[in-house]
Specification:
single chain; mainly alpha; 3-stranded parallel β-sheet; 2% strand; disordered C terminus
């Protein structure tokens, strides 16, 4: 990974630039790869990029080479090639704990010190709260941006071909770039503020399934928290300012907690706290929030809090009962069946009922058109099924894993890869 200067020397340019480099580092840590950085520069970099290099150095040891001349650059390449040769000869491999350390370090640096403050007023924002800068020569095409967002929402291009989560993120970045060219003017106009709201929400969904789960300025958590901030400002009309997004925020924190180590328990407790506060006074459909809290409690039981196990089963059973009573669509009902069946598979003496419920839920999801527009839920259901089969010694685990790997590859649902995600839960 070689670093040069950002497109211009401004702090905002470095913000976007270093954020993407950081995401590449995170992907490398998840993939258990060796990484080296050559930092070739002729002037001081912005704070964001310097923080990134400090994070990199802590994760990958003596792997950052700072060069200020072409001679130093040549020597750095020679050192890297020698290091790679030595690593290959010694058959060394990076520690698989790097991804967890990455998540923990970012969580400690980028959230409020007190969990009560983090719950009420989170610090992390999408691209650090950036809303772009106005360009007089730019001609904004509302129809083009809306078309990009529509393709992402439907999960297919204009010609009807399905698009992966990586392709969705690419389309969303194009839309966000165009919206940013309007600067603050784009937020004062209701029609473009609504497009910002949609773009942030869709980024959170696509980024979640793609696996961008850590405290990053382009993470699903950052997108959701910026969306909440935007709605609180009153610039987006016709939407609930906050409540529907609290579940999405809790889900993003849940996914980060799964990858964390030192901050795991604290993050799962924050998820339970957020969902519990959201459920207070809710008289409508509570099933989605109950599924999130049930899975968080299942994880807490796994890491040393066994009393949470009974509460987890109660939450998941109640969620399924609600969706059955409301005659919810087959996709949502199937999701609840799989989650409750998975909990039963982990805790029941006789797993046949659990496996039957999981199979029934997966069949419901397959039959739903939502599995085409948003296949991540089906992929996650298959992962849970494969894991349940494995812990029970069922030979169907291998067959399910084969289908899971194929779907992960075609949809870029990297968050659910059987090679990288062995945790229990969502």
């Amino acid at each position: 990974m070689a670093l040069g200067q950002a497109p211009n020397g401004s702090e905002k340019a470095h913000l976007s630039y270093s954020t993407f480099l950081e995401a590449e580092l995170f992907a490398a840590a998840l993939a258990n790869k060796f990484c080296f950085v050559i930092d070739f520069r002729t002037r001081e970099t912005a704070r964001q990029l310097d923080e990134f290099l400090v994070l990199f150095q802590r994760l990958f040891g003596n792997s950052v080479h700072r060069c200020r001349s072409y001679k130093e650059l040549k020597n750095a390449w020679a050192d890297i090639l020698f290091s790679v040769r030595e690593l290959c000869l010694n058959s060394s491999h990076p520690s698989r704990a790097r991804a967890a350390r990455f998540v923990d370090m970012c969580a400690i640096r980028r959230q409020r010190d007190r969990m009560s403050m983090e719950a009420s007023n989170p610090k992390l924002r999408f691209l650090g709260g950036w809303r772009g800068a106005y360009h007089e020569t730019f001609s904004f095409n509302h129809a083009f941006v809306a078309a990009c967002l529509r393709e992402v929402r439907l999960g297919k291009s204009d010609n009807g071909n399905p698009i992966s989560y990586l392709e969705r993120l690419s389309r969303l970045w194009v839309a966000i770039r165009d919206l940013g060219a309007l600067g603050e003017c784009g937020l004062s106009e209701p029609s473009t503020a609504a497009l910002w709201d949609q773009a942030l929400g869709l980024w959170a969904i696509s980024g979640s399934w793609y696996g961008l789960h850590y405290h990053s300025e382009i993470s699903p958590l950052a997108a959701v928290q910026s969306q909440i901030h935007l709605r609180r400002s009153g610039r987006v009309s016709g939407v609930d300012p906050e409540r529907p997004l609290l579940g999405a925020r809790a889900s993003a924190l849940h996914s980060i907690a799964q990858r964390a180590k030192k901050t795991k328990v604290g993050l799962f407790r924050l998820v339970v706290r957020l969902v519990s506060s959201q459920l207070e006074g809710v008289t409508g459909d509570r099933s989605g929030s109950l599924l999130i809290r049930g899975n968080a409690r299942l994880q807490l039981a796994r890491v040393g809090h066994p009393l949470q196990l009974l509460k987890a089963r109660q939450d998941l059973a109640e969620a399924l009962a609600i969706r059955e009573s409301l005659a919810t669509n087959r996709h949502a009902l199937g999701e609840a069946k799989v989650d409750y069946g998975f909990a039963l598979a982990l805790t029941s003496i006789f797993p046949s009922t659990a496996f039957g419920l999981i199979k029934e839920g997966i069949n419901d999801m397959r039959a739903s058109p939502e599995s085409v527009s948003n296949p991540g839920f089906l992929v996650r259901a298959l992962r849970k099924s494969a894991f349940a089969f494995k812990i029970r010694g069922d030979r169907r685990s291998r067959e399910t894993n084969a289908e899971l790997e194929s779907l992960v590859a075609s949809t870029h649902s990297n968050d659910q890869s059987p090679l990288k995600r062995l945790e229990i839960g969502r």
